[in-house]
Amino acid sequence: MARLLIVEDDEGIRVPLARALEREGYAADGVASGEEALRLASAGDDAHDLVIIDVGLPGIDGLEVCRRIRARRPAVPILFLTAQDAELDVVDGLDAGADDYVTKPFRVSELLARVRAHLRRTTSPQLSEAGDVRLDRAARRAWRAGDELELSPKEYDLLALLVAEAGRVVTRERIMAEVWDENWFGSTKTLDMHVSWLRRKLGEDATDPQHVITVRGVGLRFEP
Ligand code: CA
């Protein structure tokens, strides 16, 4: 089970966010200040798989917390929560070593999508295989039956998500949130186009696909 740390002084955000993450099957620890977060880290209790930091913290600010956690843990995904229209926060945050950010007010579904995508990037095995499809996640390359597939970045991301969940249905909403971004919620024509391109590149028969299966009204399932 992935364990997440939330550093957010606003209880009205921290508590419901921790609950939402726990409902998704994660363990979530919430702290209200950077000092507490760093105390956990220096006590050796820093085995979190992902860290969410509010930029606007009292005391040690979010950027400094991020820098110090990054110095100890070069690979842990760090997501920032930033105030709206705070473009400086975003640039500074990425400079301080954050991987991504979500602007307040945010939808929990949007944050969960980012969390899943970052955890998949860091915790999925580098090489994965489903049936005759093989992926090298670090190199972002894919093969079917030994032949390399020429995939666009979105086609690769779509295939990587489906393969990570091979045998299970992935909802259209989740695909749109993880492969595209929040702005695409509700518009899935693009997804349909990419699915048909991906099938063609996989050498699938469009009328009877064997790998990328449409689950009507729900989403897609990768069948190994
Ligand atoms: Ca705050």
Strand order of the largest sheet: 2-1-3-4-5
Number of helices: 8
Overall mean pLDDT score? 88
- Give helix % range: 40-55%
| Overall outline | elongated
Largest sheet: 5 strands, parallel
First and last CA, distance: 25 Å
- Compute the CA-based radius of gyration: 19 Å
**H/E element order:** EHEHEHEHEHEEEEHEHHEE
Structural category: alpha/beta
Give a short overview.
With 224 residues, the chain is of the alpha/beta class. Helix content is 41%, strand content 22%.
Notable traits:
41% helix; 8 helices; 4-stranded antiparallel beta sheet; elongated; alpha/beta; 5-stranded parallel beta sheet; binds calcium ion; 224 residues
Walk me through the topology.
Elements: E1 3-7, H1 11-23, E2 27-31, H2 34-42, E3 50-54, H3 62-72, E4 78-82, H4 87-95, E5 100-103, H5 108-123, E6 127-130, E7 133-136, E8 141-144, E9 147-148, H6 153-164, E10 169-171, H7 172-179, H8 189-201, E11 212-215, E12 219-222
Parallel strand pairs: 1-2, 1-3, 3-4, 4-5
Antiparallel strand pairs: 6-7, 7-8, 8-9, 10-12, 11-12
Helix pairs in contact: 2-3, 5-7, 6-8
